[in-house]
Specification:
Elements lengths: L1 E2 L13 E5 L4 H11 L3 E6 L16 E4 L5 H11 L4 E4 L5 H5 L3 H7 L4 E6 L14 H7 L19 H26 L3 E6 H8 L1 H9 L18 E5 L5 E5 L3 H11 L5 H4 L7 H12 L4 H8 L6 E3 L10 H6 L2 E4 L2 E4 L24
Parallel strand pairs: 2-3, 2-5, 3-4, 5-6, 6-7
Antiparallel strand pairs: 1-4, 8-9, 9-10, 11-12
Helix pairs in contact: 1-6, 5-6, 5-7, 6-7
């Protein structure tokens, strides 16, 4: 069974063709990003796979079902890559080689092909063949140790950093860089995209801060990790939360003005480490005195650097997100719209998983 119609015209990546060996997490996220912006992404699935309209990461794809453990399935993939710019896969190192679809085979079929290999630990290294998940990769990258409250255990930031920011998004970037190179030189290559590497890269600014001596504390002891009272979330009178990020002195001053604290000597000493407990106690009590909506009426849209903390139901309905069309609904599933926005080559309308493309 196949859904191999061409995608509708449009998007910055129109004319790019990617073969995606079906997997979970970062690889389909990379495929979604590329497809969102006009690339034709053909997803190779196991026979019998049924389209799942709730699987947001598989939207906007053509699909073909192949048994890669058969000679016929391998031959079909080889045929697909002959007219493709790239192939992405997320198996453990050595798996596609054992299937007969290793980089040497694929590049022999198409010397300009870019082969993107997504793993947690990388294609080589002592842990390359070990199992793992996002939490393990970001632990080794130094990310997990940095997330959480002072004196408490590290808190997993969902699976955003390893799987997606340091994984799928890095793979999408790597594929496009590789395709640009291949189109200039005629030579394809293999992209070794490891989540542990990508998660480490996302920490680059923090490593720079440490070198400058402006990130001296441990977990929860620095100005961007909840260590500073002016960069934190606070509970409101109705049990909801608001986020405050008044880092710069001029923004902090606005926060004090809006809360009536301009005459509080302790609050005026913004970066005094000795005053942090008292400052946090003051802001905690203050924000607990009004509802979230009341604080929004006072601060939202100002230079205080303030926002309500929204849940899954509230986020798509916020006026700013509505105005930007930040969310859409496909087959009754609410989901984020493609990003970023292109002025001359906007993303084509996404299609729900299993929906055939038309030549619009």
């Amino acid at each position: 069974m196949a859904n191999t119609g061409k995608r509708a015209a449009g998007g910055a990546l129109q004319g790019v063709r990617i073969i995606e060996l079906a997997g979970i997490g970062p690889v389909p996220f990379a495929g979604m990003m590329l497809a969102d912006h006009g690339a034709e992404v053909v997803r190779v699935e196991r026979p019998g796979t049924r389209a799942d309209h709730t699987d947001v990461l598989t939207r906007s794809r053509s699909t073909v079902q192949l048994d890669l453990k058969t000679a016929e399935g391998v031959a079909a993939v080889c045929e697909l890559v002959r007219s493709a710019d790239g192939l992405i896969e997320g198996f453990r190192p050595g798996v596609i080689e054992r299937l007969g679809l290793g980089p040497d085979v694929l590049l022999a079929e198409n010397p300009a092909l870019v082969v993107g290999r997504m793993t947690g630990w990388g294609q080589e290294g002592p842990l390359a063949h070990a199992a793992g998940h996002d939490i393990n990769y970001i632990a080794l990258a130094g990310v997990l140790n940095a997330v959480g409250r002072a004196g408490e255990k590290p808190v997993p930031p969902i699976n955003l950093v390893g799987d997606f920011g340091g994984g799928g998004m890095m793979l999408a970037f790597g594929m496009l860089a590789g395709i640009l190179s291949a189109r200039a030189t005629g030579q394809g290559q293999v992209i070794d995209c490891a989540m542990v590497d990508g998660a480490s890269l996302l920490m680059s600014m923090t490593w720079g801060f440490r070198a400058k001596g402006i990130w001296p504390g441990g977990r929860g002891g620095n100005y961007l990790d909840g260590g500073a009272p002016y960069y934190d979330s606070y509970e409101t009178a109705d049990g909801k939360f608001v986020a405050v990020g008044a880092i710069e002195p001029q923004f902090y001053r606005l926060l004090l003005e809006a809360t009536g604290l301009t005459d509080d000597a302790v609050m005026l000493r913004q970066d005094s480490a000795d005053d942090i407990p008292a400052q946090r106690a003051t802001l905690t009590a203050l924000f607990k005195s009004r509802t979230r909506d009341e604080w929004c009426a006072l601060m939202e849209g100002t230079d205080i650097c303030f926002a309500p903390v929204l849940d899954y139901d509230e986020t798509p309905a916020h006026p700013h997100n509505l105005a930007r069309g930040a969310f859409l609904t496909l087959a009754d599933v609410v989901q984020p719209a493609p990003a970023p926005r292109f002025s001359a080559t906007p993303a084509p309308a996404p299609r729900a998983p299993g929906t055939a493309f038309s030549e619009d």
